[in-house]
Amino acid sequence: MEFALHGLSLLLAPKVLLVIVISCIYGLFVGAIPGLTATMAAALLIPFTFFMDPVPALVSIVAMSAMAIFAGDIPAALVRIPGTPSSAAYTQDSFELTKQGKGEMVLGVGVTFSAIGGLMGGCTLMVAAPLLAELAMTFTTFEFFWLAALGLSATVMVSRGSQVKGALAMILGLFLSTIGVDITLGYPRFTFGSVELLNGVNFIPAMIGVFGVSEVIRNVMEAHVAYPIARVKTGKIFASIPQLFKKYKLHVPRSGLLGIFIGILPGAGADIAAWLAYAVAKKSSKEPEKFGFGSIEAIVNSSTANNACLAGAWVPAMVFGIPGDSITAIVIGVLFMKGLRPGPMIFEKNPEIVYAVYFAFILANLLVIPFGYLAIKTSAQMLRVPKKILMPAILMFCMVGSYAINNSLFDVGTMLLMGVVGFFLEANGFPVAPVVLGLVLGPILEKNFMMSMIKTDWDFLPFFSRPVSATLCTMTIIIWLFPLFSAFLEKAKNRNQVPMQ
Amino acid sequence: MIGGGIFIALGISILILTIPFPSLDKDHPGPSLFPNILAALFIFFGSLLLFKARKSSRGKRPTEEASETLPSRNVWNAFFTLGIIVAFMVLESWLGFLLTSFFLLFLFMKKLGTSLFKSVVLSILVTLFTHFIFYKILRVPLSPGLLGW
Q1: Is B104 on the interface with A (CB under 8 A)?
Q2: How far is A408 from A406, CA to CA, in rounded Å?
Q3: Most buried residue among A217, A453, B62, B140 by CB atoms closer than 10 A?
Q4: SS3 A181
C-alpha cells in the first residue's frame, strides 16, 4: 500500500503530469497522421526519455501509445486510411459507416471502446504482473534462457507474412546483438577496430533508424496524394454508446481479454490483436454479412482489443524482461538506459516505479476520452498537415535525437545504416519487429546460456531436468513444431476432401 | 532470391570472421559459439528462402515483376533522404547545428515540392524549435560552428 501511494504521488507530480499531457498530444498527432506509427513515435521519444527520471520516461511512452492507437481510428473513419496499422482491420467498416452518415457514432465508439480496452489491459497488468513476478523470483539462468528462446520463437511464429523471413529478421537482430565485447572473455567481436562499437550497437539510434528513418524513406517514396476528408458532425459522439454497450456487453470483455493475450505473446502487437478480434467477432456475429460493409460490431470489438493489447505487452516486459511488442522492446531499452533491469527484481527493488506504470495505464486510458474528443474536433486540421513539411522535420528530429544520446555523430551513422536495413527489410516483406526483439533478447539469451554452461561445467541436463525449465523447453519445441503440424494437418484435410469430391 | 543469397553470404562471412576468436578453454568454445550458431541459422534459413523463391518464380514471367517498380522520381527522394543524413554528419561540426539544420531542411522541403517562401520560413521555425528543445531544455551540446552560437 505504501509503495502504491508512493507510485501514485510520483505519477501525480506536476512535472510528470505535464509530460503526460505533452505525450498525449504527441501521440494523438502521430496516430492521426496516416503513415506514421506508434512505434516510430516511441522511437522518437527515446532521446527525450534519456533526460528524464524513470517514472516520467515510462509514463510518457504509456500515454503516447494509448493515444496513438486510438487516434489511428480517426483517419480510418474520415479518409479511409488507417492512422496506424492497428486500425487497419476495421478501416473499411469505419469509412462505410461514415459514408452512411454515421461518422459521429464511429468516432464515439472508437474513443470509448479504446479507453475501455485500455482500462481492461491496465487492470490485468496490475493483477497479473505481481503474481507472475513472484513465480519469476524462483527462476535461474536456465529458465531465463528458455524464456528468451520462447519469446524469440513466438516472435517468429506470429510475425507477419513468411515465417522464414521472420526467422531471418530475428537472426539478424541476434547477430547485431553480438557486436561488441563478449561476456565470457571480453573479446571484441565484429568491431573492426572501432572504439565506438566496443559497447555494441547503440540501441537508441538503431531503433530510431529502423522505425523513424525507414518510415521517412517510405513516405517520401510515395506519391503525394491529397485525400478528401469526409465531413462529420461531432456534437453528440457519445449519444449511442450506452445502447451499444448494452448490446455488446459480452463482446467487450471477450475482445479485451483476447487483446491482452495477444499482447502478452512476444512479437504480436496491437494490429494483430485487432485483426484477430475482428475475425472472432465475425465468426460469432449474428450479422457477419455486414463485416467489411459498415459493421459497428467490428469496430467495437477491434478497437477494444488493440488498446487492451498495449498493457498486455507490458506484462512479459516488466516481469521477465521479454518484450511483448516493438514498443515494449523500446521500453526495455529505456529501462536499461535508466539503470533499471526489467525482470522480477524490479518488483522488489523499485516497486514504486511499477505502481506508477500501473496507474499511468489507468490515467492515460481515462484521458483517452477528453483528449480523444478534442482530437476528433481538430482532426480535419491535423489531417491537412502536408507530408512534404512533416517528413523533413521528422528526419531532423531523428538525426538530432540520435546525436543527443552520446553527442556522437557515429550514432547518426548507426541510425542511417539501420534505417536503410529497416527499409529494405520491410520493402521485401521481412517483418522488422523480430529484428528489434532479437537485438533486445540476444544478450539475455547468450548471457544466460553461457553462465549456465560455465556454472554446470558444460552439463546440458539442468536445461531439461528442472521443472519450470522443462515446461518452457516443451513450449518452445511445440512452437517450433507448429508449422510442421499445421502443414501436415492441411495436407491431411486436402487428402480427405479429394475423394469426397 | 537475392535476399536469400545475401543472408547466406552473411552467414559464411560470420563463419570466416570468427576463425581467430579465442576459445574459453581447450575443450569448450567461447566468444565464437553464439555467432557460429547464428551463421549456421543464416545459411539454413537463407537456403530455405532461396529454395522457396526459386519454386514460386518458376511459373512467373519477368514482366510481372517489372511492372511493380516505382517511378524514378520517388526513388531519388529516398537517395536524397540518405544524402541529407550524410550531409548532416559532415556539416554539423563544421557549420554548426543552426546553419546545417536550416540548410538541410530547406533543401529537403524544396526537393519534396514545398514553395520557396514556405520552405524558408518553416526551415527557420523547425531549426529554432529543435535547437530550443535539445540545446536549451535538454542541454545537448549541439555544435556552434561558424556562427559561434
Answers
A1: yes
A2: 5
A3: A217
A4: strand
